[in-house]
Every structure is written in C-alpha cells, then in structure tokens.
C-alpha cells in the first residue's frame, strides 16, 4: 500500500510539473524548445540513410514505429532486401520531449524540422517513408532537403522509378524553400574544350528531350523554390569510347553551369 501511495505521489508530481510547464508563457516555452532542439552552429544537417533491418542497431519498438520498404541492396544491387530509414549522422538533439503530449509535440516539432536540413544522399527511396511517418505539422515545417542523383550510365529501371516517385511526392506534398541537388558525374583524362560544355539553351531546346534525361522534367515539377544549390560530384572514368559516354562526360562538365542555370529558371520563383 505504501508503495502505491508513493507511486501515486510521483505521478501527481509529474502531472503538476507538466501542467506548470504548459502554463508558462508561450515565449518561454519556445526558448526552452530552442535550447533543447535547435541545431548547433557547427552543423544543422541530419543525414537520413537506408539500412537493412538486420543491420539496424536500435531498439525493436523504434523499428516498429517506422515504415519499412524493400530495395535492391546487395553489392551488385540485384537482390531485394527489407529496409527502413535511419539517422546516421547529425547534431545531438533532445527529442524525447516530443513524446510528452500532443501540444508540446506540435509546438516543438515546428522548431525541430524547420531549422534542420535533411540530407538523403543517393538514398532517395527513404524520403517517402520518412516523410509519411511525420505528422502533417512536422512535414509542413521542413523547408530544405538534400538529394543526390545517381550517375546516368549506372541508372537502373528501379532507380528511375524511385526518382519519378520522389519528384511527384515532393511536388504534391511538400512546400520546400531550398533544395540541395548533387549530381554524380564523370571526368576523364581527355581535355574538354569549351565547345563540349553544354549551355542553358542546349538543355532547354535539346538535351532535356533526350532519351534517359526525363529525370530533368520530373525534377522541374518541384516549383516555388527560393534557392536551388546544384553541385557536381565528379569521379574519374575511362576515356569515352561511345557517343553515350562522351555525352555523359560533357554533361558532367556542364552540371554547375548550363544545367544549373536551366533548372534554376524552371524551379525558382
């Protein structure tokens, strides 16, 4: 009986502390939220990646609360495995307060999701499950994400399907202000002349209509951005021995110039 009285007393104290916190002026509550969950000056990027369920080192109840999905995940990307999204790198955040009650979740989640950049790298298949597990308030608070487009010669059919689905989801369900786009490209030892670098008009009148470049049109459905940062991630490749590889190398040299200018014209307000 004494134990029950003690437990009841502790629960009452906890309830009173919660009520007292909610009775504080909203401005003070916002200050407390910012101290706990605002990003540090060093980093405001949260990296989300796909990970197989077997390799995920977390508590079982944490996995059950996340959506799972299948992807081609072995070394040669030829076998489907069951996966989920996982935060692999980011600032230390005290997010447990979001689970106290609905009011605190609604107030604090806006600060948490609006002040961080969510980086998905090439794991764009994790975007829809991650966003789908958020509340509408939390999802609407996200203003910037980073994604990376895989290199064109190594695009598979399932990559193209994932890209289409993600672009459609971002266009219809998100109100992004900023988008960071990385594009994997190739560079060879051969010297690239100025005539082989594509301009904005080349992309507008020809390249965007090439077979295999439909992803540009799909990306352009994401409208209303205030900022679009495009960066080329170039890796060495063999000297071009086909027209397709020559195009890929030339395109890679144009990512931060003609391609970036063309996409900004379509996607920025």
Structure description:
Helix 2 crosses helix 4. The protein has a 7-stranded mixed sheet with strand order 2-3-1-4-5-6-7. It has helices at 2-23, 26-37, 60-64, 102-114, 127-132, 136-141, 157-173, 200-205, 214-219, 243-253, 255-267, and strands at 45-52, 68-72, 80-89, 117-119, 144-149, 178-187, 227-236. The radius of gyration is 23 Å and the shape is elongated. 43% of the residues lie in helices and 19% in strands. It is α/β, with parallel strands linked by helices and 269 residues long.
Task: Give the helix level as a range of percent.
Answer: 40-55%
Biggest sheet character: 7 strands, mixed
Number of helix segments?
11
Pick out the low-confidence regions.
none
Question: Strands of the largest sheet, in order across it?
Answer: 2-3-1-4-5-6-7
Report the C-alpha radius of gyration, rounded: 23 Å
Mean pLDDT: 85
Give the percentage of residues in beta strands.
15-25%
What structural category characterises the helix and strand content? alpha/beta
Count of beta strands: 7
* Coarse shape: elongated
CA(first)-CA(last) distance: 67 Å
**Helix and strand succession?**
HHEHEEHEHHEHEHHEHH
